[in-house]
Amino acid sequence: MPFWPTGPLWFLWCLLAFDLIAATLYRFAPGAGERLGRLSARADAAPGQYFLMLLAASALAYVPMAVMFKPWDWIQLGPFGFQPSFLPLYLVYFFAGVGIGARGVERGLLAPEGMLARRWRTWLAGAFGGFVLWIIPSTLMFEHMADPSWVLDLLADLGFVLASVSACFALAAVFLRFAVTRSPVFDSLSANAYGIYLIHYVPVIWVQYLLLGVALPAVAKGAAVFTVTLLASWAIVDAMCRLPIGALLMRAERRS
């Protein structure tokens, strides 16, 4: 290939860079994380206000970059690749996560008995509405690629921001409302999630390749690839963590 493909692992160096930014802020502006934590703590009683704040920050981070770069544009510098249109948006979400976690994820916005969980139906409906407001102008934009309209582009970019924020709130609300008991299956998935992320690229590519000549609908192929990749990656990582070197690489406790 004319470039150094990194696959989904490109995001690891991105997270490391964000961690270095956070560590620098903690060193020279130690109160920054506490201020973010206070914003999240108040979001328990008024998640709508926090939603609007995150929506505004996301729009400011994404829309100007989306004007200059397309969503599918990549910049590759040796082994480091990134999508310039999304990078500032990822940074906004990273520090939103820092604020939510500053005082513990069980308090503030993600409090199990908070307003977000109690109004999960509202947030789920909002996520569906946000998706519609994004997908309609996006579809029209692709249909008029030969004669692009900046109005459609702007609506699609704003719709993407709205769909992203509303989907995050809706997913959090649904899990806070219904995922209230421990499950051995989900505990195992949580413990192996990082390892699955590391190695899933290999089975997902090869399973797609093996199904390339099979006469199945795209939805069936997608479901098969997802299922086989998840189960294979999960089993491999769980087996690796039963060895000392595997547990060390995955930063996990050795399993019996």
Description:
The chain folds into two domains: 7-178, no CATH class; 184-249. The N and C termini lie far apart (42 Å). It contains eleven helices and two strands. The protein has helices at 10-28, 31-42, 47-68, 87-101, 115-118, 120-143, 150-178, 184-199, 201-210, 218-240, 244-249; strands at residues 75-77, 80-82. The protein has a two-stranded antiparallel ribbon. Helices cover 70% and strands 2% of the residues. It is mainly alpha-helical and 256 residues long.
Spatial extent as radius of gyration: 21 Å
Taking the sheet with the most strands, its summary is: 2 strands, antiparallel
Determine the mean pLDDT.
Answer: 86
- Domain tally: 2
Oligomeric status of the shown chains?
Answer: single chain
